[in-house]
Amino acid sequence: MIETRRPGLAHACAAVLRRDLTLAWRLRGDMVLPVLYALIVTSLFPFALGPENALLRRIAGGVVLVTILLAMLLAMDAMFRSDIEDGSLEQLMLAPQPLAVMLGMKILAHWLATALPLIVVAPLLAGMLHLPATVIPVLLAALLLATPLLSLLGGILVALTAGTRRSGMLLALMLLPLCVPVVIFAAGALAAAQEGLPWIAPIAWLGAALVLAVVLAPLACAAALRIALDS
Amino acid sequence: MNTVASAPSLDTPAQRGAPLLEARALAFYRQDEAVFGPLDFSLTASELMLIEGDNGSGKTTLMRILTGLLRPEEGELFWRGERLTWDRCSGEVVFLGHQLGLKAELSARENLAFTIGLHGHRNQSGIEQALTQVGLSGLEDEPVRKLSAGQKKRVALARLLLVPAILWLLDEPYANLDRAGIELVDVLLEAHIAHGGSALVTSHGAVQFHGGEPQRIHLHD
């Protein structure tokens, strides 16, 4: 007679989140790298374009957005890699829990560990390029919607390229075209805010896209990873 | 965060009659070359099945198909009389493969806590107790990275003690283990079979099983 206690879904979600965040904290050196990358790239622009305030102010929003996007790409590759290598993913698939939800939790943990530090330093990056302080709340709103969207899109592509070697470069080539609409809407909101125009519409579009991605991306991830391991 | 719900016991009398796992004409090919099969077998509760074969004879491939991670090219698998599909693995199975599924940066205790969080655990079983049983007391809080290959295997074996699975799928459970470790696997298997569980074990023939005559499947090249 095997007496059992099965964990509920919330319990399992908490377990995945707790483990991945603990792992991120143990490997926190890796967490710092994208932040340093973003700081260095942003500081290159005044050197390349000259320290003219008006010019920097005009490009600041776009530069910060693209820099953060590229910095996220650096860490994207690692989203499921260690889990595939050490067999954790197999164990996750065999657990009596919906795989898509568990992967959603992994993506959330990855976003918290990689994108959130970048959002925290975003005002600093914006300040380095003289972005007006009044625009910074819009920048943060755009980033809070755009970065999870990128994590979710990235998650699908990481899952699709999981079986291949040198997936990092392939991932970048596949993800960057998908970033175009995200960048357009986020930059659109920033440009509108800088000119004192209403900026809520592009932000709402980002929000709508994020809702769609939250629902669909984990399902796509689960399907793609099953295919990747079925070989 | 106390959402743990009590599930019904795994071996109710009604389910005891049907075979747990049944394979019908199961076969797998790689580039049109047969890896194994067609195989027919069935496994009931309280039964041990040994899968024997040389390196490269398809033992691990068969194991991965039985977990549901890999699709068989031909044939069908049934779990308690219901078809086991590729995207619906049974929650009543625990799998121990070549990759142990342990996080090197986490301690044995943290790794097992994660397992319990996903799979649940048997009543009256605790992480401390399981780790003591596999001979790792005192090493609970060491990062798994610092353990030896055999000790890592023992952490994975502790998972078998905790997870409420009726079927154990063990792929080469003896690899990397010392003499005491090999005996430990045998003892765990005997206790599991004696309590109504079943197990499929791949091996080169090192199993010393005293709880009855196991079924054997031999895979050829």
TrEMBL record, chain A:
> Which Pfam families does this entry report, sorted A to Z?
CcmB
Q: Mainly resides where?
A: membrane
**UniProt keywords, alphabetically:** Cell inner membrane, Cell membrane, Cytochrome c-type biogenesis, Membrane, Transmembrane, Transmembrane helix, Transport
Task: Report the record's Gene Ontology biological process terms.
Answer: cytochrome c biosynthetic process; cytochrome complex assembly
Compartments annotated for it: namely:
Cell inner membrane
Please give, as recorded in its UniProt entry, the membrane topology of this protein: Multi-pass membrane protein
Q: Does the keyword Cell membrane apply?
A: yes
List the transmembrane segments: 31-49, 55-75, 107-129, 135-158, 170-193, 199-225
User: What cellular component GO annotations does this protein have?
Assistant: plasma membrane
Source superkingdom: Bacteria
A single Gene Ontology MF term assigned here is:
heme transmembrane transporter activity
Which family is this sequence assigned to?
Belongs to the CcmB/CycW/HelB family.
Per the entry, what this protein does is: Required for the export of heme to the periplasm for the biogenesis of c-type cytochromes.
Give the NCBIfam families listed for this entry: ccmB
User: Cross-referenced PANTHER family, in alphabetical order?
Assistant: CYTOCHROME C BIOGENESIS B-RELATED, HEME EXPORTER PROTEIN B
The protein depicted here goes by the name Heme exporter protein B
Organism lineage? Bacteria, Pseudomonadati, Pseudomonadota, Gammaproteobacteria, Lysobacterales
Query: Source gene?
Result: ccmB
